[in-house]
Amino acid sequence: EKRNKGLSLFQKALEDRFHQEAEGNAEKELVQFVLDISFKITHPGRLQQEQHLLLHLKDLFSFFSHLKIEERRLVFFVLQVILQGMGKDLRRFPGYDSHSLTAIETWEDLDQYCYEVAGVVGEFWTQLHGLYYPDLLKSHPQLIKWAKGYGKALQLTNILRDIPEDLNNGRCYLPRKELEKVGLLPSDLLHPLKAAQTAPLLIRLLQKTAFHYLEGICYLDHLPKKPWSFRFATSLPLLIGLRTLRLLADSPHLVLIKGTKISRNEVYRLMDQSFYVSVTGRDIHPFSMALFRKAVEKLEIHFF
Fold first, then answer.
1. Over 90: is that where the pLDDT of 125 sits?
2. Candidate CATH numbers 1.10.10.10, 3.30.413.10, 1.10.600.10, 1.10.2020.10; the one for domain 97-296
3. Are the C-beta atoms of residues 70 and 141 closer than 8 Å to each other?
4. What confidence tens digit (pLDDT) does each residue in 68-100 have?
């Protein structure tokens, strides 16, 4: 409840700051709000990273106030959607451990959640670059759709990778109605023997993730070669995500038992490849599609 209230207060403060034209007392009130919320939410049991963020909210608002008006509109939009999604998530999962385990209801709910916390980031990223490269969206009107799908792919990968940890924290992102179809309750996922029944459901979730990665590949394929930093920042998460998807698809039966992530050396290798392709302006499509094909070869799906 406190976190939910904190999100609402943060969103209101951001909206007020966005519409604020004068400084003076309004600025002082904003600073006081930041100090108050930091004091109330920060306590010894709070994660150190959260404490650091809350204690530096004033700096974030200061940065926000110096953005151009078009940039502010986009930042306000993306934060508003994310905060709404986070608020819904807190209400959906009120507990903090496996004893209060709750599942998301439907595929549609999961898709909406993935948009609100990740797909919207792709939308924001694309619109932000569209401010400085107007031809970007004019030439490729599908970019926004692909950007949303790309963000969803990354979030679904996080969900698949973190299932054991989420279950222990009272969160199940495998839809309850789909679990019912295979005769399971969310609590059954805590028991490895029963969890084996989730194989068809996990395969379907992997297939959905793979489809969204195809949107990510389409997105990357239609980006301009310059600036190279745009391509690099966009391609690296895609390559890491595809490599992670392959690990998940290779051993779906282990998804509920242990977390899955690629090695640090693998991340560095993908970073080198992404950097080289981006700087030289080479076509990254053959490389990303090769990773995609390896990732889906055990999922019995054919997109090409």
1. yes
2. 1.10.600.10
3. no
4. 999 999 999 999 999 999 999 999 998 888 889
